[in-house]
Design a protein that fits this description.
The complex is a heterodimer of chains A (640) and B (256). Chain A has 640 residues and is an alpha+beta fold. Chain A contains 17 helices and 19 strands. In chain A, helix 15 runs antiparallel to helix 16. The radius of gyration of chain A is 24 Å and the shape is globular. Chain B folds into 2 domains: 109 residues, Roll (Ubiquitin-like (UB roll)); 129 residues, Alpha-helical ferredoxin (Fumarate Reductase Iron-sulfur Protein, Chain B, domain 2, Orthogonal Bundle). Chain B has 8 helices and 7 strands, in the order ββαβββββααααααα. In chain B, the strands form 2 sheets. A 5-stranded mixed beta sheet of chain B has the order 2-1-5-3-4. In chain B, strands 6-7 form a two-stranded antiparallel ribbon. In chain B, a hairpin with a 2-residue loop joins strand 3 and strand 4. In chain B, helix 2 runs antiparallel to helix 6, helix 5 runs antiparallel to helix 6 and helix 5 packs across helix 8. The longest helix of chain B has 15 residues. Classes of the chains: A alpha+beta (640), B alpha+beta (256).
């Protein structure tokens, strides 16, 4: 089998491509829409928006999520905001500028046409959310407020306190509930997708496990949309929710959907550090703290055990200010993260385990007063104190980088369709818009743009062109997929080894974090690639899952996800190994400028690395989709 | 530190439940409550036993998935905190801790500490939205929203749908949850067109789900991890009463 990586970008000037595409796409007659069934997996900003909008159009929609309600999806945890090129502040913003910032911020590894469309649609997204009743922050005149965010010189971020993701998701969820009430949308909660059904080369349904009863069942459809989020939990510790997983996209990959840029992960510099072996997840502290906090560690290792207030000014190393005098504490995410790792590797980290750096507000408090700082960051300081029991007004915060977002994902064309006809992939689950590094406040924008405004139209084009014929739930392909899932489930239960799924996951995460995390080298990646298969073999021979498959069994759910993380981890390392350059979140220590900046190799790597699955026994095949930069000139990033 | 846990175990919705006592050894004060349960569960798995099932996801207090009755208090002793953000430093060495699921006729137990909160989704489906299809929105700044209204709407919209208000209420009422949504949308100009219809439909659905009546005990606002004020219930009652008084039969227009 050979895959086609034609991105199907419409011809014409970049600002007219989406208009042209909307005119060229085929339409489904309103009366015929109800005859088609669309399955949407995931109920976050992307999946939820798609499910509601497809139902509004008249399709028969079935949406699946593993949580107990669509309102729980991890989009809910996004704090900062959502970008839109509204130019409400009259500060020179435009669709073109948002497009430009996003391509540049992504370190020139995204597709121009997709990003331009995203910037165009960003304006409609804000309109839609405001009309739904999302309580965005307002000025006294009643107009929408904006704030600035990293990587932009204009103020284009809309927000709802520190809970923007929550409010946007609740807007989306309310649209879904409206459609559920009308009858166009059926919601399946506590259902996990475990395989994709392909018939005649087209996506025709999914296999799910009912997480309450254990029933493994097929669901048939004419088109399948995955909005299942990112795969940051491959690292075990991340800012993702505990349930976030790669199973849906991974099983789709194994059915023929190519995987693009799996090694592109974003590591956020300001998270609360690990406090012990039992640590289950990491909590992000908004990047905005770096506006007033100063980052430092002791100059000498011997001082690391001292209380910070006992370390005199002269013995402190404000390493970001020292290394990057012009950007200082506001250096971009990838750079600040790597610098923290370096000082901790040197043994100068602080706190338990020596994996932390100080974020100190004492100068800002002296300069502005405690009240001003409380006004700006009060809720964040409170959250920090709740978790650590330390008062950041008196003692500097301790922070450390953590995995936060994955830019890689299933490959999609301009219509957001994967290499499997009829399988569309939206939001963080696809790869298309953020290149090698995502800018702050852009994930929410992309999820909603894909879900509300792009996929509802491109799904129609697919259905009108492919005209999928009715299929039977008794088709041999359905039976084969069903049997495969049942076999795998039974295998986990029958292994009867000694170790829990979590213990393997934690060990895998450590390997990935050490060898394929903030800084990667040929040596570290080869090390990971030699360790992972051994651990994977042990997982499959020494796993212990109590209970049965016919009940609510959280260990069994976990086992399937960890099994997929093992395979994905290997692909991430292979991808990181072959990408002999540094770009955005992907930093290969062999490829840096003399002063430690990421060194891209545009001659060899201005392309998307796309992996094709070829069975358990064979290595995946690497393909390339070349990237063309006609509007944003390739340039080296510098923050000195 | 060392704790004695009395945990509600119930193999399935139909099975009978009972308390089982476990010892939690080597508990660090830095652990979250759920991390403490993770450690207990790892020990149970090592002994070949079924671990304690509990719901959780984001573990940063925003998804609303977690929720335990801890010593009879919804989400435990720390105010304005969801179970996942409760830390073990709130307990002392030698404490005995009773851990139960939410108890309410509207929330059947599925297993151990996991309950079915689908009733809350159905209350939203009854009218907890502004009916605006994708694409039909005017410019976001076309409708001015006074800052005060936007702030009040946001206070109510902070609800995470965890169900602690129901669990804490002696009557098992879902009023705080329902009223928070009615108050969020009713505070906004966009929400006015459906305001009466929304109040009627959501309150009726709440009653139909078997939740108890509100008698203004105020336990709900004490338990709420987002500290939503009971004032929203007064607003709901006002909207509901007004809607009842001016209730007119739905106009039915046959399609041409």
């Amino acid at each position: 089998m050979t895959i086609s990586l034609n991105p199907r970008i419409p011809s014409g000037p970049i600002d007219q491509k989406w208009d042209k595409q909307r005119f060229d796409m085929k339409l489904v007659n309103p009366a015929n829409k109800r005859k088609y069934t669309a399955i949407v997996v995931g109920s976050g900003l992307a999946g939820g928006a798609a499910a509601a909008s497809l139902s509004e159009l008249g399709y028969n929609v079935r949406c699946f999520c593993f949580q107990d309600s669509p309102r729980r999806a991890h989009s809910i945890a996004a704090q900062g905001g959502i970008n839109a090129a509204k130019n409400y502040q009259n500060d020179g913003d435009s669709v073109y500028r948002l497009f430009y910032d996003t391509v540049k911020g992504g370190d020139f590894r995204s597709r121009e046409a997709n990003v331009y469309r995203l910037a165009q649609i960003s304006r409609n997204v804000i309109d839609q959310c405001a009309a739904q009743g999302v309580p965005f922050a307002r000025e006294y005149g009643g107009m929408l407020a904006n704030r600035s965010f990293g990587g932009a010189q204009v103020s284009r971020t809309f927000y709802a306190r520190g809970q923007t993701g929550q409010q946007l998701l609740l807007g989306c969820y309310s649209a879904m509930e409206k459609e559920i009430m009308k009858g166009g949308l059926t919601m399946f909660v506590r259902h996990e997708m475990l395989d994709l059904i392909i018939i005649d080369g087209k996506a025709r349904g999914i296999i799910t496990r009912n997480m309450v009863t254990g029933a493994i069942e097929p669901h048939m459809a004419d088109v399948v949309v995955l909005g299942t989020g990112g795969y940051g939990n491959v690292f075990y510790l991340s800012t993702n929710a505990k349930g976030s997983n790669a199973t849906a996209i991974w099983r789709a990959y194994k059915r023929g959907a190519a995987f693009a840029n799996p090694c592109f992960t974003q590591i956020h510099p300001t998270c609360i550090p690990v406090s012990g072996e039992y640590q289950s997840k990491l909590t992000l502290m908004s990047e905005s703290l770096r506006n007033d906090g100063r980052v430092w560690v002791p100059k000498r290792k011997e001082d690391c055990g001292k209380r910070p207030q006992d370390i005199p000014e002269g013995d402190r190393d404000y390493y970001l200010e020292r290394k990057y005098p012009s950007f200082g504490n506001l250096s971009p995410r990838d750079i600040a993260s790597r610098a923290a790792k370096e000082v901790c590797d040197e043994g100068r980290g602080v706190g338990p385990g020596g994996r932390g750096v100080y974020l100190d507000f004492s100068d800002a408090i002296k300069r502005l007063g405690q009240n001003k700082i409380a006004e700006r960051y009060g809720n964040l300081f409170e959250m920090y104190q709740r978790i650590t029991a330390e008062n950041p007004y008196e003692v500097p915060m301790r922070i450390y980088p953590a995995v936060h977002y994955t830019m890689g994902g299933l490959w999609v064309d301009y219509n957001l369709m994967s290499t499997i006809p009829g399988l569309h992939v939206i939001g963080e689950a696809n790869f298309s818009d953020h290149g090698a590094n995502r800018l702050g406040a852009s994930a929410l924008m992309q999820g909603l743009a894909d879900g509300y405004f792009i996929v509802p139209l491109t799904v129609g084009d697919y259905l009108a062109s492919a005209k999928p014929a009715p299929v039977s739930v008794d088709a041999p392909e359905v039976r084969e997929a069903l049997e495969g899932v049942k076999r795998q489930t039974q295998k986990f239960l029958d292994t009867k080894g000694k170790r829990s799924a979590d213990s393997f996951h934690r060990e895998l995460g450590k390997i990935m974090w050490e060898d394929c995390g903030m800084a990667r080298s040929r040596q570290s990646l080869e090390h990971a690639l030699s360790k992972i298969p051994d651990l994977r073999h042990e997982f499959h021979s020494n796993l212990f899952i109590p209970g049965t498959g016919e009940e609510l069994n959280q260990q069994l759910e976990k086992a399937g996800r960890v099994a997929d993380f093992f395979e994905l981890a290997e692909l991430m390392c292979m991808d990181a190994l072959q990408r002999e350059e540094s770009c955005g979140g992907h930093f290969r220590v062999e490829h840096q400028t003399p002063d430690g900046e990421a060194l891209r190799d545009d001659d060899k790597f201005a392309h998307v690395s796309v992996w094709e699955y070829r069975g358990q026994e064979q290595a995946p095949r690497l393909h390339q989709e070349p990237l063309h930069f006609e509007h944003v000139a390739l340039a080296q990033r510098s923050y000195k | 530190m060392r704790l004695t846990l009395n945990v509600w175990r119930q193999p399935s919705q139909k099975a009978k439940g009972f308390f089982v006592t476990y010892e939690a050894k080597d508990v660090s004060p830095e652990m979250s409550f759920l991390e403490m349960l993770d450690v207990v569960n790892e020990e149970l798995i090592a002994k070949g036993e079924m671990p304690i099932a509990f719901d959780h996801d984001c573990r940063e207090g925003i998804c609303g998935m977690c929720g335990l009755m801890i010593n009879g208090i919804a989400h435990g002793p720390s105010r304005g905190t969801a179970t996942c953000q409760l830390h073990m430093r709130s307990f002392t060495d030698g404490d005995t801790v009773w851990i139960e699921p939410w108890r309410s006729a509207g929330f059947p137990v599925l297993r151990d500490l996991v309950v079915n909160r689908g009733a809350l989704d159905r209350i939203i489906a009854a009218g907890g939205y502004i009916s605006v299809n994708t694409g039909s929105a005017p410019d976001a700044n076309a409708v001015a929203v006074p800052k005060r209204n936007a702030d009040d709407a946001m206070d109510a919209a902070a609800c995470i749908g965890c169900g602690a208000c129901v669990a804490a209420c002696p009557n098992g009422s879902a009023s705080l949850f329902t009223a928070a949504k009615i108050s969020h949308l009713g505070n906004l100009p966009q929400g006015q067109a459906e305001r009466s219809k929304r109040a009627l439909a959501m309150v009726e659905q709440m009653d139909a789900e078997g939740f108890g009546p509100c008698t203004l005990f105020g336990e709900c606002q004490e338990a709420c991890p987002k500290e939503i004020s009971i004032d929203v219930i007064a607003r709901m009652n006002r909207d509901y009463l007004a809607a009842t008084l001016k209730k007119r039969p739905e106009r039915v227009i046959a399609d041409a």
